[in-house]
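Explain this record to help learners:
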Amino acid sequence: MVDCTSEGVLFIEADADTTLENLGDSIQPMCPCYEELLYDVPGSGGILGSPLILIQVTRLRCGGFIFALRLNHTMSDGPGLVQFLNAISEMGQGLSVPSLLPIWQRELLNARNPPRITRIHHEYEEVTNTKGTLMAMDENNLVHRSFFFGLKEIRALRNRLPASLGACSTFEVLIAYVWRCRTIAFAVDPDEVVRISCLINMRGKRGFDLPPGYYGNAFVYPASITKAGMLCKNPLEYAIRLLKKAKAEMSQEYIKSVADLMVIKGRPSFTQPGNYLISDLTHAGFGEVDFGWGKPVYGGVARALSNISFCMRFRNSKGEEGNVIPICLPPPVMERFEQELKRMTKEAEPVRLIKSML
């Protein structure tokens, strides 16, 4: 529910004495000047009693600009945010109303009456760190880095896969690769259960005829699980098969079961120990938003979180097209992670580290 008080949103204008060329690849996560490009207005970051959106536009010396935004995630997901940005674009260029009208209708995803959990939801299981190796991280001691995967790196990974595996998306290949390397880097006990949760958009799924313009959160993140030893000792195809299996189990009944679980268990958080969440934003449309000056050089998230990453399209300073994935890890784990990445792509150029900061 939203209390429409007509107070608007927070909007900040700023100027920076630099150019887009000077920024180079640092405009993608993890941008070292993040705090300057999106000022955290005191008291604005809450869920309740706070503005729904914080926007900052920073003009650059070259004539370009950086549009940064912070969203109250209870309002919208990625596709919903892109819809909002496109509406700003259209109205800023003269339309009186956006071409795609916003639809509220949150009741479309309500739980059933009575609610009933009919599927297994590994993403919400209560887990105890029994052996003390399930990737515990201190938020104050993390290294933030982004990794660029171009055509050469992706080709090197695909060359490791057997023909019997069938067709695989680039996202499946990359995420299986990153999950495996990340688990090896943490040196998790072989008998510990690890999991990866990939966000899946409900839009377009049979049985959920969400109307065009629905901008609320419409995703679930089913978890693939396995013992760490199995993930680390098996080839890359093992992890890919786990991802495919979880994706294949996605159905109308699964989604309804998630909604019912939220009611029965009181909106639990996703599993924390040993879980790695990742969202595919390569098709979300952030790179297509045009405010009248053309498409952005980069459109996507500004940073990753301790156990959450995003996969986004990116063109680096050399003009190469590919995907970028920001990752946060403790310093010694990050070092081992990079070594494992290079080992698995030794047939081609090593995965390119774009930017890092403590």
User: Anything to note?
Assistant: The chain has a mean pLDDT of 89. Residues 24 and 312 are 17 Å apart (CA to CA).
